[in-house]
Amino acid sequence: MTYRIFSTVAVFITCLGLSQFAQAQRGPASVFVEPVTEREFAIRVEALGTLTPNEVVNLTLNTADRVQSLYFDDGQRVRKGKTLLSLAQREQIALTEQAEANSEEAIKQLERVERLANRNAVSKAELDEARRAVESASAQLRAVQSRQKDRVLVAPFDGVLGFRQVSVGSFVRPGDTVARLIDDSEMNLEFSVPSTFLRSLKPGTKVSARTDDLPDMAFDGEIATLDNVIDPITRSVTVRATLPNPDRVLMSGMFMEVILIANPRKSLSIPEEAVQPIGPKTYVYRLNDADGTLTAQRLDVELGAAENGYIEVKSGLNPGDRIITEGVIRIRDGAEVKVESKSILLPTKAGEVRVSGGTNISRSTGIMADAAQRP
Predict the structure, then answer these.
(1) Could you identify which of 82, 192, 277, 335 might form a hypothetical disulfide with 331, taking C-beta atoms 3.0 to 4.6 angstroms apart as the criterion?
(2) Residue 344 has what pLDDT?
(3) For position 340, what pLDDT does the model report?
């Protein structure tokens, strides 16, 4: 029994010695390192949306009559206040002239009554009646003039007209569409995003949009408003962004792919391959240099967003720390390591071999060197 115990202990000691010997023979693990640097991070939200004009109106008249004149063509760009159409005016002109005559007569009658009132030849009641007549005639004139203006259609804002829906001589009724006017100096882009991003969205947040209708072109804009309700089915909120359209290439109804950049910031970053998740925590290995001896120190870090192969570091590291990116599976906390240059991964030229440190030498030179070292 004692012999067996001693035999077991001897085998264990032998195995332990062989393990330590093998580890000593292997030496420090070779690793690649990269410094902790600052990078730009942001929340990127992708969505699909549809363009609508900044302003759009169906041009109509509020009176009925025949079209006398047209002053625009299909697709024409017009300025605010431009006359587009006029209805028959003969009867309205006559009514306007009659109202003007009545107004002028009432004013003259008031002047005569005022002269008589100065000589106490008329009563105060007659003077008041003359003044009311002037006011009534003026009101009737303004009403007639207003109805005359209603027979002329003008552009309410700068924009581009659609197809003409009437012709000279056609009879139009109140509410009939004459044409559609669109203000396309800037376009509204409406799209939906998950409500979880609400805290990161606000007016002024930048967006970038593309469309297959205009390949190789990108359009930058910003959020104008957010809807005040969340869709209870999709749990999303509608966002409206404005896109400047100085070249007038964007059209209403275009289908757009939207990339929304929210909460842009500069943060510390490390490569994704340096992160070692263990349970609910994440760790990295930092390179420590103590009296020329390089060792790996495991640190608990708090991470954020990931973008283009790098992860945002919220806490646990400082700028300039050197982090082990390759070889972490072969090391442990406090283990000695050897830093290699990534140049050793580059392909060599024909006839060359790579030696430690990333230096290339030709095969003939290496053979001669070996021969010179032989006794």
Answers:
(1) 335
(2) 66
(3) 82
